[in-house]
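dude i think i finally got it to work??
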Amino acid sequence: MASSILKALRAFNSPAFRSHRCLPALFPLQSYADNKTFSNICRWFSATVLTPNASEETTPLNFSSNKQVLTLDREIGRLDDLVIPVTNFHNEDKGFMVLDGKIFDVPIRKDIIHRVVRWQLAKRQQGTHSTKTISEVSGTGRKPWRQKGTGRARHGTLRGPQFRGGATMHGPKPRSHAIKLNKKIRRLGLKIALSARAAEGKLIVFEDLDVPTHKTKNIVNYVQQLDGAKKLLLVDGGPINENLKLATQNLHYVNVLPSIGLNVYSILLHDTLVMSRDAVNKIVERLLTPINR
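look at this
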């Protein structure tokens, strides 16, 4: 262990180390012990990131300022399974979870996202707008004046669109604004949105979304711990916990959804997505189920 740390310290300032090219040479992970050694060294280099409860005294000053976290670069959209740590509201380590690459690592396509968002916004329009035609507007049907001899324009009713209080011609009537979009495209849009959040590192998996009390300050404290999180979307597998619902209802930047209600537009409105294990499993099952024709 000590020799591995000394070897890492000697190579830390080299350009090859910063570009991650010498990681296999430094630590050829051939056994469980080597894996554990590499993990401990990575945690030591970036203790404030990997261990939220670590204090500044436990982290060397020359590593806590401007050093980058050791992360291996990967190509997005290769349908590779992803391994993500599982935590909770108390930042406790709950193990790891494997995310299906068919759902969380698909190629990013903005055109698909645009089509799905446009379909969602069009479908949710109420379409209750209505104007009155000449047969619906209130007023008499009597001819206002005789046809000839007055010098005025001829009219047969005062309910026409040219008169005050008259009808509206070609005005809107109640209708559906929904447009057609194939189910495959809808599913693909949700996969792309989830993959984008996972690629950005903005997808967090919780063991569960249970909170001990309904106090809002617990959720506020957790959001403040997240670096750069402005809007948070919490997704649970089943019905929303009552304490969680009460704790978040006064926060405009935190919203809660069941897994059945997860959609592309809601994911795009929030920069951070928090899902429970149960929610991930149900989303994967839902998106991998064959479409009934």
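Strands lie at 82-87, 96-99, 203-206, 232-236, 254-258, 272-276.
im so relieved honestly
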